């Protein structure tokens, strides 16, 4: 018996976790179930006031019910209807959720999936290379295909719901060039898959994912549903910031203090990005040692909103400085306010720069400046080019517009560039088809001419 009590040192556990004696709590006198450690939720942080981890703060700020989501109720209803009717159990189905960055797409999917009884399995593109059973390095596309088939065909034992789905936010870059491989993957999934898949696509100025991999013909062929989410409204961001401020002041009051002044400053600079607004609220509310609370709210002395920023660029004010001049509002300071939304700011300038320009020569120079800024923004391999494009665009437009038209002009919202691109692609495709293939009009004209010649021959 003494030998049986000895612990075997040769058996090494293959699970990366703590021993059971440390993770489990002793049974209570009233219950017979083992109590595990509680997960990180808002309820577990009601008494904590010294949390310093940014990831845990963001986790505590996540919405807990559908009324706390930033997307509209109409879009929530469309997603819920797809969960209830489109995502049938045991059958392959696919959803594309598109929208601008930070509008709350992923948070809405995770929360609504939980409410409809789905476990969410998220694909994250790995950085480290992996080997198969034959010690061969697997390609990124092969690893994604293996994960897609396994996650949609077999049910996980770690989930708590009877249904599950695969969430893909980061599609492997290999499919950006190899379109045929992605189409073959879709064919394979719709043949043997049994669980739904959701692709979250972030619409940006240089993104052509919806036109290449998820073209209308592909969506129609496989019956893929597409739901487009708009940018978060000012009212929804305000409600989110109010809810988040109460949580932050509760769980991390030793590190930060959120006031109404901080919320108003974030709202004045927000452009529909909820994630950026929450991050800026956390950083702007940090308590800096040795300073008063009023000086902690930011580094700038004023708050510059989007409309005022557009007005300062399209209607620049100059003052004489000796033999030269200088701008009343520094272009570099204007660019500093909108560094995180450089592409959106440039799009607003493209839509409104002609309102205050007098001459055709100035308009030509301004259009060249905006065209070059668009080229800089389309280069996704270097993130710093977005800052260069913003600074170059602001300085160039302010210099080109020497005598702006002084009149009240409302700021117009940029048009939907995705629809414009779709129309351009369709027009380009039709133009190439008219060159490569004979048009139906020419065929009909040939038939009519042949009939006319036959009629004349018969009459003769």
Quick tags:
single chain, 460 residues, alpha/beta, two-stranded antiparallel sheet, 19 helices, 8% strand, disordered C terminus
- Strand tally, please? 7
Series of H and E elements: HHHEHEHEHHEHHEHHHHEEHHHHHH
Largest sheet: 5 strands, parallel
Distance linking N and C termini: 121 Å
Side-by-side strand order of the widest sheet: 2-3-4-1-5
**Approximately how much helix is present in the residues?**
40-55%
Q: What's the average pLDDT?
A: 76
Number of helices: 19
- Overall 3D shape: globular
Radius of gyration of CA atoms, rounded to a whole number: 29 Å
- Which structural class best describes the helix and strand composition? alpha/beta
Low-confidence stretches: 1-40, 291-301, 452-460
Task: Please indicate the percent range of residues in DSSP E strands (runs of 2 or more).
Answer: 5-15%
């Amino acid at each position: 018996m003494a030998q049986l009590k000895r612990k075997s040192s040769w058996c090494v556990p293959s699970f990366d976790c703590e021993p059971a004696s440390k993770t489990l709590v002793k049974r209570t006198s009233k219950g017979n179930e083992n109590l595990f450690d509680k997960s990180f939720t808002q309820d577990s942080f009601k008494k904590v006031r010294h949390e310093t981890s940014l990831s845990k703060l963001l986790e505590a700020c996540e919405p807990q019910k559908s009324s706390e989501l930033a997307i509209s109720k109409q879009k929530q209803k469309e997603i819920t209807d797809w969960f209830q009717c489109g995502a049938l159990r045991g059958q392959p189905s696919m959803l594309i959720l598109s929208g601008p960055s930070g509008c709350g797409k992923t948070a809405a999917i995770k929360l609504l999936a939980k409410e409809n009884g789905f476990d969410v399995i998220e694909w994250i593109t790995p950085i480290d290379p992996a080997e198969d059973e034959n010690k061969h390095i697997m390609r990124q596309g092969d690893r994604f295909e293996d994960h897609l088939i396994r996650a949609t065909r077999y049910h996980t034992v770690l989930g708590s719901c009877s249904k599950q789905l695969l969430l893909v936010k980061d599609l492997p870059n290999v499919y950006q060039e190899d379109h045929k491989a992605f189409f073959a993957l879709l064919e394979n999934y719709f043949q043997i898959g049994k669980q739904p898949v959701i692709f979250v696509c972030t619409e940006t100025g240089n993104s052509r994912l919806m036109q290449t991999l998820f073209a209308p013909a592909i969506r129609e062929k496989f019956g893929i549903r597409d739901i487009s989410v708009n940018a978060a409204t000012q009212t929804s961001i305000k409600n989110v910031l109010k809810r988040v401020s109460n949580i932050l002041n509760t769980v991390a009051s030793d590190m930060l203090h959120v006031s109404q002044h901080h919320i108003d400053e974030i709202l004045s600079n927000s452009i529909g990005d909820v994630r950026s607004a929450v991050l800026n609220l956390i950083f702007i509310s940090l308590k800096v040692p040795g300073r008063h609370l009023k000086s902690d709210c930011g580094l700038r002395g004023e708050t510059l909103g989007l409309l005022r920023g557009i007005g300062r660029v399209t209607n620049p004010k100059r003052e004489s400085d000796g033999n030269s001049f200088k701008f009343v509002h520094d272009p570099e300071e204007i660019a500093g306010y909108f560094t995180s939304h450089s592409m959106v700011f440039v799009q607003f300038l493209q839509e409104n720069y002609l309102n205050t320009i007098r001459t055709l020569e100035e308009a030509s120079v301004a259009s060249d400046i905006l065209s070059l800024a668009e080229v800089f923004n389309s280069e996704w391999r270097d993130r710093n080019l977005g800052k260069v494009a913003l600074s170059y665009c602001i300085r160039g437009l302010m210099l080109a517009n020497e005598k702006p038209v002084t009149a009240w002009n409302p700021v117009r919202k940029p048009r939907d560039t995705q629809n414009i691109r779709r129309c351009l692609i369709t027009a380009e495709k039709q133009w190439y088809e008219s060159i490569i293939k004979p048009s139906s009009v020419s065929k009909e004209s040939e038939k009519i001419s042949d009939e006319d010649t036959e009629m004349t021959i018969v009459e003769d």
